[in-house]
Amino acid sequence: MATYCKMMLIILLIFQEHLIASAYNEEEDIPSEWLLLHVVQGQIGAGNYSYLRLNHEGKIVLQMQSLKGDADLYVSDVTLHPSFDDYELQSVTCGQDVVHVPAHFRRPVGIGIYGHPSHLESDFEMKVYYDRTVVESPFGGGTYNPEDREVTQKQFHTTEDESQDEESVFWTILIGILKLILEILF
Fold it and tell me: Which PANTHER family does the record match to this protein (predicted)?
């Protein structure tokens, strides 16, 4: 009976390792048009920022995975020190954060990585991709660039974006408080 339990435990552990390995195999999900430029690994303390500069031209995709804790991503072409109060693009999930930096952003682009206060330290890995995708125009000839449309629409959505920013900060704070309460209770 003990041998049977040991065997089942070993099979269960092997199966669990296989599931974990396949969950972290992100290479299959990357489009062939994306070219890997850099891989940045780091650690950030709770409530602190780490800043990077992006000098590459063109459409860039920032894909950051929180390996431990919860690191959030803020991007700006206006300031080199973006934060949760001052940014143009953001991704603030508890797992993988992805930001598509448009080609029209002025270089250098500021990248802020924020260590969420719900964890004392956060480890992250960020992959920087160059997106070589060209979108064909549905009207024939030439190409259609969706980023050009974003530039003209940006001025019409500033008040809507500001209210979403405030909502995002509110939810980030609320989720952090709830996490702390759950950690205290359990």
Answer: UPF0669 PROTEIN C6ORF120 (PTHR31703:SF2)
